[in-house]
Amino acid sequence: MPSFDTVNYSLRPSKGIQRQIVFEGVRLLQSAIDLESMAYIGFGSIWFSDFIAAHKMLQVEDMISIEANDVGFERALFNKPYATIRVKHGISGEVLPTLYGDDVIKQRPWLIWLDYDYAFDESVRDDVRSLIENSPTNSIVILTFKGHEMAYGRPQDRPARLKEVFGSVVPDDLEKNQCKDDQVQELLSKYSIDYMRSVAAEISRPGGFIPAFRIVYKDSIPMVTVGGILPAKGAVSAAKEIIDSPSWCCMPTKSIVAPHLTMREANILQSQLPRQEPITREIVKALGFDLEQEQIDTFQRYYKQYPAFAQIHN
Question: Any idea of the CA torsion for 131, 134, 135, 137, to the nearest 10 degrees?
């Protein structure tokens, strides 16, 4: 069953926060390096949530959505929100090579966000290599994939599986007790970024690959988002200056696990912010409801990015 039949991608608060963080980061990069007339490439599904955000937040017009499912392709054509979105039918490994010579976008920077609904596997690895080898100068490549430990086999099999997928960036002495719980997401973040950097070095891209995005979030299962920039040689220092600055928000140290709040709960909590001191559970109880402290902390940290949802009855 395709994921669009089981998940409404627009209604996941942790995912919504992650999306806002990524686009805020890209907007900072737009102010520092040449991303004029940037094109957006991704998996829009039938919801196109990231495409809408890219158009509104980043002013991107030319966009390409890749859809492998036959029914999903027809529904995507029906649901695409803007006239400048082109929907390409096929799997990413087949569609991406057709874009490298596309006259509309081949001379412009790309923002590529491939949001997979499965684990980092050989097909994802091949997409990554293809993009790093062929993406235009100043392109930004971002991946999202499953970070759940069971997606990478039984505990005793995980070191070998990670070695199969990521190759030489995985140490030969990786042990199974290092491949469990939250450690798996840390390893996946590290190895996927190391792999992207190694491909750029192997093919001698003039500006190399600069890691810029590393986010773990969880709505139902852990998901890992990683990525970076393929800058022109002359843009390396400007890109690094932005990413190394205190304002860079795209590498949070903690996993994003956002609470599912009603609109009333979110509005009441938001009315207490911004504030210097943390909101405590006792304060929330005094406001009339209750949450776990971790949920409160996450909302206070990300309330500006927390999505606002409404149900409309005709």
Answer: 140
Tokens 């054509």 identify what position?
77
Contacts (Cβ under 8 Å, ≥6 apart) of 166 = 120, 125, 191, 192, 194, 195
| pLDDT, mean of each 10-residue run, the chain (314 residues) | 47 90 97 94 96 97 98 98 98 98 97 98 98 98 97 96 98 95 95 98 97 96 97 97 96 94 94 96 97 94 84 43
Look up residue 73 and give its two tokens.
């392709």
DSSP element (H, E) containing 119:
strand 110-119
The number of beta carbons lying within 10 Å of the beta carbon of residue 203 is: 11
- For residue 274, whether the previous peptide bond is cis, meaning omega lies within 30 degrees of 0, is yes
- The whole-angstrom separation of Cα 201 and Cα 233 is 13
Q: What is the DSSP letter of 200?
A: H
* Cβ contact 293:309 at 8 Å: no
Helices 158-166 and 182-202 cross at an angle (nearest 10°) of: 20
Fold for domain 3-243? Rossmann fold (3.40.50)
Domain layout of the chain by residue ranges: 3-243, 263-302
Q: Which two tokens stand for residue 65?
A: 């959505």
Q: Which tokens sit at 151?
A: 């997606």
Residue 2 has what pLDDT?
57
CA distances from 6 to 3, 46, 71, 156, 174 (A): 5, 12, 14, 31, 35
Task: Tell me the sheet residues that pair with 88.
Answer: 66
**Predicted pLDDT of residue 5:** 45
Is-contact 188 120, C-beta < 8 A?
Answer: yes
- Written as one letter, the residue type at 93 is G
